[in-house]
Each structure stands twice: as C-alpha cells, then as structure tokens.
Design brief:
The protein has a single domain, classed as 3-Layer(aba) Sandwich (Rossmann fold), CATH 3.40.50.150. α2 crosses α3 and α6 runs antiparallel to α10. It has a seven-stranded mixed beta sheet, with helices on both faces. It is built from ten helices and seven strands. The protein is an alpha/beta fold and about 270 residues long. The chain is globular and about 55 Å long.
C-alpha cells in the first residue's frame, strides 16, 4: 500500500457516523468508496439498489451521499458467515446500528435474479463485484434485469489499464487468480476479468446508453498486496493443475514478484448509463 492521507471528506464521515474510527484499513476503503460515489452523482433522497454489497463498504458511502430522505436496498448472494476479517453479518450489523442504519435494508443470501422488484429504483449500483461472475453471459443476464429495475446504472470495477508500471504486480495477481478460477473451482473474488471496454459493451447490450468511463485513484489501497499474497499461495496447486500453462505462469509470477515491498493497487473505473 502506498502512502496516503485521510482526506477531509472521510474525516467528516467518520465524525458524523462513528464507523471504523479505529480501523485504518477500513478508513482507506471508505475513502475510495466515497470517491466512487461522488463520481456516481447520486440524487439526494434517491431510492438506490446496490447489487453485490459485500460487507457494505460502498453501501455506507451511498447512504451518506443520498441523505436522510433516501434509501438503499443492498443485496448480496453470500451468507452472513462469508468474509474476513469481519463476516458480512458482522459488518452489516455494525452499519445498521449506526446513524446510517435507517436508510439501509440489507438482503444477504439473495440473488438479484430471484429478487422481486416492485417499484423502479432511481439508480442501481454495482461496485467492485463484477469479477465474481463466472462469465460475460451471466453478467449480461443480470444487467438486462437491472435495466428493467432502475432508471440509471452506476458501475465501478478495478481498471486493468494500469497507469503506473508498479501497478503491474496487481494486474499479474488478478490475471493469475482468473486463470486459477478457470481450472480449479473456488470461491475467490476473482472468477472472470472484465476490461472496461467489455463492461461498456455489456451495458449497451443490456439497453443502457453509457457515458465515457472515469478513472478514480485507488493506488493507495492494500488490495494489490492482498491479491499478490493470495496468488503466491496457490502457485503450486495451479502449476500442478495446469502444466500446459507452465511457461506462462512462470512469466506472470516473475512479473508479480518483481517489486519489493508494498505495491500500489490498480485504479478503479466508473461507468454510468441511463
């Protein structure tokens, strides 16, 4: 993780809602989510649908941005016991007990494709959840339902088009993990990599007219280091399962581990469509 300073926007959030005041890692995650939500330009008092909410990192930022008159319906297919260091249940319970709780309804263990949408949402948000999907076809099926459920969509994900050579290590890590998911079934958060051009194409196939993507700095986040650690941990298993990819994997691992110490994470991109 590169050096960072918590900005005033994040400090104001912490002072108002008293969440994660003693957790430096969560504060950096929150700072990034606040920046993403700024780029989403959500309406005050809006009804927001969030798909793939996880532990609620982006949910908190959404609820803060839309104000007391708004509401967030946040869905995730994982169970309350999934996740670390806090499980989804622990993290979402903490958020619900805060001053943001009245604005949020969490639906864990809920697949959006099985969720009954009775009233049109102002905006649907998918933030850093697309790589969980097994294929482009699976993601497109969901986006087509989103098109019927919301007037507008805001989509954020890691940007594979790194702008700093040091971010290449994070790129190699997620590439290795995507290959791993192709040959060994697992429940990691990298199943399929999507470049922003493919996401834009899928959004347009689903019926959205999209704006040009925006880039949001995420280099200070620790995720690149986490992904590198996980990629190294599965090296032997992956090489034994896919001997035909031996030279490719060796090359990726050399690039992955070339930098010493902390590495910057990939940036995020934001796409909006209506």
């Amino acid at each position: 993780m590169t050096q960072y300073t918590i900005n005033q926007q994040t400090r104001d959030f912490l002072d108002e809602h008293h969440l994660y005041e003693d957790d430096d890692i969560q504060q950096t995650q929150l700072q990034h989510r606040l920046a993403l939500v700024d780029a989403f330009a959500l309406p005050k008092g809006g009804r927001i649908l969030e798909i793939g909410c996880g532990q609620g990192d982006t949910t908190m930022a959404i609820a803060h941005a839309i104000g007391a008159g708004g509401s967030v319906t946040a869905l995730d297919p994982a169970s309350r016991e999934y996740g670390a260091p806090d499980t989804l249940g622990q993290a979402t319970d903490r958020i619900l007990q805060s001053s943001l709780g009245e604005r949020i309804t969490f639906h864990l263990e809920t697949d959006f494709l099985d969720y009954d949408v009775t009233d049109l949402f102002d905006v649907a948000v998918l933030s850093h959840c697309s790589w969980y999907f097994k294929s482009a076809e699976e993601l497109l099926t969901l986006l087509k339902k989103v098109r019927r459920a919301a007037k507008r969509i805001c989509f954020a994900e890691w940007d594979l088009a790194f702008t700093d050579l040091a971010q290449r290590s994070h790129f190699c890590a997620v590439s290795i993990l995507a290959l791993y998911s192709q040959v060994i079934e697992n429940d990691s958060n990298v199943q399929t990599l999507f470049h922003k051009t493919e996401i834009r194409r899928l959004l347009e196939q689903a019926g959205f007219e999209t704006d040009a993507p925006a880039t949001i700095d995420a280099s200070y986040l620790p995720d690149g280091g986490w992904e590198r650690g996980y990629a190294n941990s599965i090296r032997t298993e992956l090489e034994e399962a896919a001997p035909a990819m031996g030279s490719l994997l060796t090359s990726y691992y050399e690039l992955l581990n070339e930098p010493d110490g902390a590495i910057p994470s990939l940036n995020s991109f934001v796409l909006s469509g209506a």
